[in-house]
Amino acid sequence: MSATSAPTPPIVDIRHVSKSFGALKALNNVSMSMSLGEKVVIIGPSGSGKSTLLRSINKLETVDSGTIIVDGYDINAPTTDINRLRMELGMVFQSFNLFPHKTVLENLTLAPIKLKGMSKAEADDIGIKLLDKVGIREKAHVYPSKLSGGQQQRVAIARALAMSPKIMLFDEPTSALDPEMIGEVLDVMVTLAKEGMTMAVVTHEMGFAREVADRVVFMDHGGIIEEGTPEHFFQNPEHERTKLFLSQIL
Amino acid sequence: MSETRIIDVGEGAAIPSKNDWGLFNAWGISITGAVGVILYLYLFESTPYKRIAHYVADGIIITFEVTFMSIICACCIGLVVGLGRVSKNKAINLVASTYVEVIRGIPLLVQLFYIYYALGRFLNVHDLTAAVIAMSVCYGAYMGEVFRAGITAIDKGQTEAARSLGFNTKQTMFLVILPQAWRTILPPVGNEFIALLKDTSLVSILAVSDLLRRGREFSSETFLYFETYTMVALIYLVITLLLSKGVSIMEARLSHYVRH
Ligand SMILES: Nc1ncnc2c1ncn2[C@@H]1O[C@H](COP(=O)(O)OP(=O)(O)O)[C@@H](O)[C@H]1O
Ligand SMILES: [Mg+2]
């Protein structure tokens, strides 16, 4: 938020990362870091590598070169237990990816019970509180297929939060939603941001970026073209490509 | 999201769908007809048919035994093979794939003879056990393909969601993927069950006294070939139809979380 805060070691530190899919360079020598509590919004045209960057933070994509340090651990080091580290990294997908064979509440409690050894009673308790928070407590015992897209995405956010992650990664969380449902999901994300969650959000919702972002990162062709505060971005972007992109999207 | 994907359905008796109703469908007509004819032959055309029915009765038990045990073993083998076929471990994958290729390339009857006599030569196993092992080894490969198809039909977003929560590959498979895959797997697996049941008639060639072999024994003593095989065919039909009904009931139970 301000440049005056004491320098803390970054909780996510991405250094010179590259990743190719065959001949296609999805990430080209990208460096970016996030400090605790920071909200970074990543924007850019489709195919620019935003998802690949976000997904490489929790190693859903393995980078070809460069290092990624999360919470002090090099995620590609053989000594790092990636499954353990992923518990610190909540992820929300464009397509929700709720578990259709589990009720809403079970979606929230599965990981805490199996991975943290939490009792069912305790997990249920936390789960219900989280459903309250995202505003769908009454749906606790229904199956995800009975929910609207907006409701499913709120459950997906709650599911990630149930593991009490340090960082939340959002990959276009509202892009698959009908327009009238985008607001309810963004509201949950804004609340989360105000509570101080560290967030990396890929989105095309510029209103959200303005309201929440400490920093906006613009990507194109697998690289970071420009980054800065929302004010900088929306008032006087430097690069031509940024200007062009913003003129198309705003 | 959770649409049911159609995966390869093999030949076999028709599994009744929930849209079929009452007796006025292929299943209803077949079962009523078969049971009706058996009862009629048994009660009114009593002379040879009653004797046939009594003679082949223990064969029915053996057929059931072979079917049941082979289904259990084939499912276990199938699960392991299916998991092997989707494994990222190259060696495991290659072993599983080779197994499937080899088994699918040899006629079941030849396999039955081969495994039966190989087991008989090198190990001293019971006839029935040998037959079950042979059936299981063969059907395990087919079942493995069905499991593989069912597993790969699950959206990869499910795996990603599970992994991102911190589940390892094994937990992801057993907590997230397989519980969903059952639903897609069940219809084709049901078809395999039915095909397996019918193929157990092949073990009659070995020294296993199943339904067909008992029929053959009876007819070669009495020369009542037509009557015997009429009875045997009707009994197979009834068993097969009942099994297919059982599969469809299980299928309906498992689909409870799907939006209709
Ligand atoms: N699994 C993959 N296999 C092949 N190409 C991929 C894969 N994932 C992404 N790509 C390609 O990498 C580039 C960057 O993709 P992505 O990170 O998804 O972009 P964005 O999220 O910005 O739209 C795109 O050209 C995309 O087609
Ligand atoms: Mg993307």
Structure description:
The complex is a heterodimer of chains A (250) and B (260). Chain A is an alpha/beta fold. Chain A contains 9 helices and 10 strands. In chain A, a hairpin with a 2-residue loop joins strand 9 and strand 10. Chain A is globular, with a radius of gyration of 18 Å. Chain A starts with 11 loop residues before the first strand and ends with a helix. The model of chain A has no long low-confidence stretch (mean pLDDT 94). In chain B, helix 1 runs antiparallel to helix 9, helix 2 runs antiparallel to helix 8 and helix 6 runs antiparallel to helix 7. Chain B is built from 9 helices and no strands. Chain B is an all-alpha fold and 260 residues long. In chain B, 76% of the residues lie in helices and 0% in strands. Chain B has a single domain, classed as MetI-like (MetI-like fold). Chain B is flat. The site of magnesium ion has 4 residues of chain A, from helix 1.
Write the layout of secondary structure elements.
The complex is a heterodimer of chains A (250) and B (260).
Chain A (H helix, E strand, L loop, with lengths): L11 E10 L2 E11 L4 E5 L6 H8 L7 E6 L2 E2 L7 H5 L2 E4 L11 H13 L3 H14 L15 H13 L5 E5 L7 H16 L3 E5 L3 H7 L2 E6 L2 E6 L1 H6 L4 H10 L1
Parallel strand pairs in A: 3-8, 3-9, 6-7, 7-8
Antiparallel strand pairs in A: 1-2, 1-4, 4-5, 9-10
Chain B lengths: L25 H18 L2 H41 L3 H15 L3 H15 L4 H26 L3 H10 L3 H31 L11 H12 L2 H30 L6
Bound molecules: adenosine-5'-diphosphate and magnesium ion (MG).
